[in-house]
Amino acid sequence: MEFTREIYWNVGHGVLIPMYLLAFIAIGIMIFGFYKRYLVYKMGGSENRLDSLFDRIFYMLRNVFSQQKVIKEKIPGIFHGIFFWGFLLLFIGTLLVFLQADFTNPLFGVKFLTGIFYLVFSLVLDLAGLAAIIMLSALLIRRFFIKPEGLETIRDDYIIHGILLVILITGFIIEGLRMSVTELGSGSFLPYFSPVGMFAANIFAGFDAGSLQGAHKFIWWFHFLLAMTFIGIIPFTKLRHIFTTSANLMFKDNRVKGFINTPDLEDEQAEQFGCEKLTDFTWKDIFDGDACTKCKRCQDRCPAYATDKPLSPMKVIQQFQEAAFYENTENMVDFVTPDVLWSCTTCRACQETCPADIEHVNKILEMRRNMVLMKGEFPGDEVITATDSLEVNGNPLGFGFAKRGDWADGLDVSLVSEQADVDILYFPGCFASFDKRNINVAKNFVSICNELGVRVGILSKEEKCCGEPARKLGNEYLYQMMAMENIEKFSEYNVKRIVTTCPHCFNTLSKDYRQLGLDGSVQVEHYTTFLHKMFEENGFNLESEDFECTYHDSCYMARYNDILDEPRSLITSAGGRINEMDKNRYESFCCGGGGGRILVDEKIGTKVNAARAKMAADTGSGMLISNCPFCLSMFEDGIKTAEVEDKIKVRDISEILVDRIKRRS
């Protein structure tokens, strides 16, 4: 017996004309549906997301076919990944059948679905279909019976799960009916290469051939019409993500992580700054809403949502879709609501975990800009006070600008205004200049540099806040004013290398300042990477002493700048044994101070810093180490709020290192 099967068995080739007619109708409906959505996307402003097109396409294909972003979420991700691969194999199998039956065989007399290839083809498709059914059933059970908290279920979910499951099951029923008539009892081992089909065939084995053929023809048409319905409804249901999520991967932001558009505040033609109406945003912002699959990964990782704030990154993105397609909403700020917008810490956990590369943070920042620059709205009076201090004294803490360099009294450090020939310009930032706890960090860093023979210079009272908190709170004008003054000083003193102990300053100076004219040759580093490099280059060994600790990854170190290992290396070189918190590295939980919220009183829900302090205490390490002034300050308060003062103490990496260096000396 030849290893093959008759294509269009029982239904005959007469089905071709109605079959293709229905297929063209289904595809036409799908194209029309996407065209209607395309017209809505065009409501947004222009933005080029097709540069480096080859790289974009490669990135999309790699992620779509590997499902690498999806399967990061172990259980549902693996279920979805296996289902996708199974369904993909079935789709490829269908294309091969079409290719032989309607192209190579009638035109050239070529049949390739024969012999060993057909046996492999048959076995692979059977197993792929079985895997798809099992995984789809698992996802169905998770959504409709286990019902994870926060996972929204809507009408689309019932339609999608139902239609896919029926398509898969009827496919095996059709195969079983065919095999029951043509293969069972033939003495061939061909049925064994379709194990699921053979199982179905044995169920039907007791019926007469005529009844089986009648049932086969009916279910074949039902299966086909269901498949065409599936194609036609794609743009009108969540199934659209098959195309929109894939496309969104191609449209990803290829700029540096955390890139923020820098508006020209001197543009006299500009009627407003920031975004309020849906049409103020870009087409990509609207498209993001259609690319969202409501998987809730962003929501699960949002520190604001986890501490009972009104912010859900998933809901914000869905509100863009609702406003564009259903609500006809004009004012996005009011639709999303200010409390939601002010809750964001810009930790970027939502974007880091999103399998669709949706961009949440900048939408929020643009709406904050609109509230501050166009309406003068702030999250609280304390922010107005801090803003006034920034304008007058160049720092948000209320200290006079003339005292900015007082922390360095008695230290071996130069004023670059008097001695510009230094190895590095140390940019301590506001907290290390004025906050008592963080002043120790600045002093420690200088002491370590002295030990390494690094000549350190500072701007002292000529330094201004980097402007990051003001910018993240929407005050772009104040940010640009301070940034330009700092850039002017860097240029005046021909600064070539800047080191800062603040991740927020580091991120702002190394990335955002470039848009305002900071010379690309100026090297900007965080002190942990700088010291790690210096220790390695100089063969510098610390006086190691064993201790246990846990380490907190600052959002602006890990997620914004991919700095994970260097700080840990410094800790271990000092003798530290790190007991990692459950949420670490890219999954780290925010301290609550990002997004300018270091200046905002936390009035809604529970405190983010207390939640993180509790996570640290639960490791039983006794010591929490950070390398960010915001984190250090937030944890000092969070430990008290969480009432774990007897379980955990917070220290900066510099405090650990300087202790070992003193002992070494």
Automatic annotation (TrEMBL):
A Pfam family assignment: Nitrate_red_gam
Recite the UniProt keywords alphabetically. 4Fe-4S, Cell membrane, Iron, Iron-sulfur, Membrane, Metal-binding, Oxidoreductase, Transmembrane, Transmembrane helix
User: What top-level branch of life does the organism fall under?
Assistant: Bacteria
Q: Does the keyword Coiled coil apply?
A: no
For molecular function, the Gene Ontology terms on record are: 4 iron, 4 sulfur cluster binding; metal ion binding; oxidoreductase activity
> What are the TM regions of this chain, as residue ranges?
15-35, 78-100, 112-137, 158-177, 189-207, 219-237
**4Fe-4S in keyword set:** yes
PROSITE patterns the UniProt entry points to: 4FE4S_FER_1, 4FE4S_FER_2
Question: Where does it reside?
Answer: Cell membrane
Quote the protein name from its UniProt record. Electron transporter
Q: Which organism is it from?
A: Flexistipes sinusarabici
The upper taxonomy is: Bacteria, Pseudomonadati, Deferribacterota, Deferribacteres, Deferribacterales
